Amino acid sequence: MFAKLPEKFIGNWIDAKSNDWTYGFFEDFAVYQSDFWEYQSIETGKDGRATVQLKKGQEQAVLTLVSKKDSSIQVRSGKGKTVRFSRMDKSLPSFSKKDTIRFAKPTFRKDSVTIVGYYRNLDKIPAQFANRLNRSPFNVGVPSFQLDKSQDYLADIDSMGRFRITFPVMNMQELFVDWGRIGLSMVVESGDQIFLFADMLDYLPQTSDSSYEMYKRRPKQLLFMGDNARLNNELIQYMDLWKSFGTTNRDEKSDMTFLKAEESVYLQKLEHLND
């Protein structure tokens, strides 16, 4: 039995230059290259650095970790360059460079997408919220423009909060992910493998949540790694404006009153989108 990874290295680590989520180090496994890796060995030196050997199937990786005073770490993979990483908080920092990657040309041939995921602290959800947050399988809804309906795909979540699911898509595709639990929209392309991380304690209701909109907009540790990760990481930073004039007592209002109210909502949403 090897030593445990020191607490100072536990967490998700963001490349300080590219802003990409690159490593997740946890008590029983690591997340790297959009998948789970086992700890083969962990050695800690007197200077506080840790040498970690990871394994996934026949693949292996050796990482040297050094903790810095500013809550960052330095990681060297094998004999490569040392790179600095910042610990992920509730919100991902803004990207400093434009994303110029284009979507692939549509082929209209079915392919598959794989989502690998880790719901951290799923075992710590209080009993009164268990039915909504931790007892159901992971669910992906894939809308079909051919059938004009959504097809659901399910995956079991293991005792550690980990899951994996592969399902068919066609070209670039919007997904409705775990709508009853985290209510997430994603965008993927054929052939993608993307890793999803969420801290489930962030999804517990809080006294500061005065409305559902406040609950949705409250920062939560939610991260993507892998194909189209940057696009999805950026999309979750810009929440839709949950605002509507509604149709309550519609018959009691004149057409112009209704029109002006809806126009006001439209202009507010347009300003929110432009911001």
Task: Considering the chains and any ligands shown, give keywords for the structure.
single chain; 275 residues; mainly beta; Immunoglobulin-like; 3 domains; eight-stranded antiparallel beta barrel; four-stranded mixed sheet; 4 helices; 16 strands; 39% strand
Account of the 3D structure:
Helices cover 13% and strands 39% of the residues. By secondary structure, the chain is mainly beta. It folds into three domains: 7-87, no CATH class; 110-235, Immunoglobulin-like; 242-275. An eight-stranded antiparallel beta barrel has the order 1-2-3-4-5-6-7-8. Strands 12-9-15-16 form a four-stranded mixed β-sheet. The protein has a four-stranded antiparallel β-sheet with strand order 11-10-13-14. Strand 6 (59-67) and strand 7 form a beta hairpin. The radius of gyration is 22 Å and the shape is globular.
Summarize the structure.
This protein is mainly β and 275 residues long. Helices cover 13% and strands 39% of the residues. The chain has three domains: 81 residues, no CATH class; 126 residues, Immunoglobulin-like; 34 residues.
How are the SSEs placed, and which strands pair?
Blueprint: E1 11-15, E2 21-25, E3 30-32, E4 35-44, E5 50-56, E6 59-67, E7 72-77, E8 82-87, E9 110-120, H1 130-133, E10 138-144, E11 149-155, E12 162-170, E13 173-177, E14 184-188, E15 193-199, H2 212-217, E16 222-226, H3 229-235, H4 255-274
Parallel strand pairs: 9-15
Antiparallel strand pairs: 1-2, 1-8, 2-3, 3-4, 4-5, 5-6, 6-7, 7-8, 9-12, 10-11, 10-13, 13-14, 15-16
